[in-house]
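Project outcomes to date are best conveyed with an example. Our students and postdoctoral researchers have been running inverse folding experiments weekly, and each run begins with a structure described purely in C-alpha cells. The record below, which covers 315 residues, was selected by the lab manager from last quarter's runs and is presented without edits.
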C-alpha cells in the first residue's frame, strides 16, 4: 500500500478541512467517524484466521497426547463452521530437526488434519535439516512457489505476506527486494505479515534484528499486523515503528504466538510496549480480518485458562 493510497481512504481523511473548521469541531467529527467505523466491526463477520507457531513435538509422547493435538482441537471446529477460515503456521512446525518423518509422524496426525487450509512459514528448526528439505517436501507448493519460503496471498479484503526469517544474507536480500515489489503492487486497505523470529520479544530468545528491514518496509506501506513465534509464549505489543517507539497512528501491532504445542518457556526482561503476556497455557490466536479493521482473541487449550481479546481499525 503506497503513501498516496493511504490518503485516498476515508478513514484517514475524515473530512475536507474548510477554512472555517475549528480544531474542536474537527476533532469531534474525527471521533464520531472512528466510533462509526468501530461499530461497523461488530456487523462485519470478516474472515477468520487461526495462528500459532512452535507446534508438533512427539519426542516424549504420542501425537494424540501432544500439545499439538490440543491446539489442533481448538482450530478444527472453527474450520468446520467456516469454509473461508484459514490457518497460519508460524514456524518451528516440528521438532527437533524438521525431518520429513517428523512432519508425517507428528504434525500430520495433528495440524496435518487441516494442511490444505494452512499457510506455513519456516522456522530455525526446519533448517536443522539442510535446506529445510523435510519442510518443503511435506508442504510442497503450499509453502510458496519456490523453496525460499516467502510468498503472499489475499484473505478476504486483506493482503497477507509470509516471510522467511532464517535465510542467508544473500537470499534475504532477494527476499527484501521481492517484499518491496509486493508492497508496491498491494492495493489492499489492510495488510498482515508473519514470520518466525520476532523483532520484539520479552521471551527467552529475546528480540531479533534480522527482520527489522522488513518491519520498516511494512510500516512505511501502512501495514497493520505482524505475527511471529520462536519464543514459546504469548505476547501482544502496542503498535510500534521499527525502532520500538510506540505509534498509535501508523505503528504495527505484533503478536508472538509460540504456543502451538511445544514446551512453554520462561520470560526474561519485559520489553517496552509489551501490553499482555502469558506462558501458562498452549493455545492459538484467532483473528477476524474485516474490511475496516480486525478483532483478536487468544484461545487457550486449558478450560478457564488465560485469554486475551480486543479490536482495532486499520490505518
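After processing, the design step wrote out the following sequence:
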Amino acid at each position: 500500500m503506497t503513501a498516496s493510497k493511504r490518503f485516498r481512504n476515508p478513514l484517514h481523511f475524515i473530512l475536507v478541512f474548510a477554512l472555517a473548521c475549528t480544531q474542536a469541531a474537527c476533532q469531534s467529527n474525527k471521533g464520531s467517524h472512528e466510533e462509526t467505523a468501530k461499530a461497523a466491526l461488530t456487523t462485519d463477520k470478516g474472515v477468520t484466521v487461526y495462528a500459532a507457531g512452535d507446534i508438533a513435538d512427539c519426542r516424549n509422547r504420542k501425537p494424540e497426547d501432544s500439545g499439538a493435538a490440543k491446539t489442533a482441537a481448538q482450530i478444527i471446529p472453527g474450520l468446520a463452521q467456516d469454509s473461508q477460515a484459514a490457518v497460519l503456521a508460524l514456524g518451528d512446525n516440528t521438532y527437533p530437526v524438521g525431518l520429513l518423518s517428523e512432519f508425517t509422524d507428528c504434525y500430520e496426525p495433528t495440524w496435518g488434519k487441516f494442511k490444505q487450509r494452512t499457510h506455513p512459514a519456516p522456522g530455525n528448526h526446519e533448517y536443522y535439516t539442510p535446506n529445510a528439505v523435510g519442510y518443503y517436501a511435506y508442504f510442497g507448493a503450499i509453502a510458496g512457489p519456490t523453496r525460499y519460503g516467502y510468498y503472499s496471498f489475499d484473505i478476504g479484503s486483506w493482503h497477507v505476506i509470509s516471510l522467511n526469517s532464517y535465510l542467508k544474507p544473500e537470499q534475504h536480500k532477494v527476499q527484501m527486494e521481492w517484499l518491496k515489489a509486493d508492497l508496491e503492487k498491494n492495493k489492499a486497505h489492510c495488510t498482515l505479515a508473519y514470520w518466525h523470529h520476532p523483532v520484539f520479544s520479552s521471551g527467552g530468545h529475546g528480540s531479533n534484528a534480522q527482520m527489522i528491514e522488513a518491519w520498516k518496509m511494512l510500516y512505511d506501506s501502512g501495514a497493520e499486523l505482524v505475527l511471529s513465534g520462536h519464543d514459546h509464549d504469548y505476547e501482544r505489543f502496542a503498535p510500534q515503528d521499527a525502532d520500538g517507539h510506540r505509534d498509535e497512528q501508523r505503528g504495527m501491532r505484533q503478536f508472538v504466538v509460540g504456543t502451538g504445542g511445544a514446551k512453554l518457556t520462561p520470560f526474561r526482561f519485559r520489553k517496552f510496549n509489551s501490553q499482555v503476556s502469558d506462558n501458562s497455557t498452549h493455545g492459538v490466536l484467532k483473528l477476524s480480518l474485516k474490511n475496516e479493521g480486525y478483532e483478536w482473541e487468544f484461545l487457550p487449550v486449558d478450560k478457564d485458562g488465560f485469554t486475551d481479546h480486543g479490536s482495532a481499525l486499520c490505518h
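The chain is about 25% helix and 20% strand. The longest strand covers residues 293-300. The training component of this project remains on track.
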